[in-house]
Design goal:
alpha+beta, Glutaredoxin, seven-stranded mixed sheet, 6 helices, 9 strands, globular
Length: 203
């Protein structure tokens, strides 16, 4: 796959992930799904393997013209983010790894607010009230599209499709997929670097 680089998160980060996950979930008491995820029995979510895929600008597919309606009822589309990097996170409320990564996504969203990148969630399963409740519980301030019909997932199908939940895509300033994390964002520094590098690219 010329122009596409894939790598796994470093093994050294696995032990740190377990500790970090435990710390994150300590603030989510009485969260059986999160406890279940940490126990490793693999129920109620579609697991990714943590693979990070980076695509060189010259190898990226054409821009994706997406559109949808947020949990709050607002319309959103690629045109709203013209000239800006977009971080798309595919999730749903009962997905335990989605719960683990949510606080870190909230932090990165705040870091890049007004700095050239915006976050947008894509809820693949829930109705609006459940999605809004999740956002409040985990301090998520960016909007999420309700995509229960799969339209937005289909729009991003292809070589780096979001075929696990959670999946996070970094979209460049031209609307093309620049990177994908297939599975939980276990090392926020990696996503941070992907966002920063994509912002730094020339349009």
């Amino acid at each position: 796959m010329n122009g596409i680089r894939m790598r796994r998160a470093a093994k050294a980060g696995v032990a740190g992930l377990v500790v970090a996950s435990a710390l994150l979930l300590a603030g989510c008491s009485n969260d059986p799904l999160a406890d279940q995820y940490l126990s490793g029995d693999g129920k109620n979510y579609i697991a990714g393997d943590g693979t990070v895929t980076e695509i060189k600008p010259e190898a990226r597919q054409k821009a994706v013209d997406f559109a949808g309606t947020t949990a709050e009822g607002s319309s959103v589309s690629q045109a709203d983010y013209s000239g800006e990097v977009v971080v798309l996170n595919f999730w749903y409320a009962s997905c335990a790894p989605c719960r683990v990564e949510a606080p870190e996504l909230a932090k990165l969203s705040a870091k890049y607010d007004g700095q050239g990148a915006s976050f947008l969630g894509v809820n693949v399963r829930d109705q609006a009230p459940q999605a809004i409740s999740f956002e409040k519980n985990y301090g998520i301030t960016y909007p999420s599209v309700i995509d229960t019909d799969g339209a937005l997932q289909l729009a991003f199908s292809g070589e780096v499709s979001p075929n696990a939940v959670p999946t996070t895509l970094v979209i460049d300033k031209e609307g093309r997929v620049a990177a994908r994390i297939l599975g939980q964002v276990s090392e926020p520094s990696i996503l941070d670097t992907l966002i920063r590098d994509t912002i730094a690219e020339s349009s």
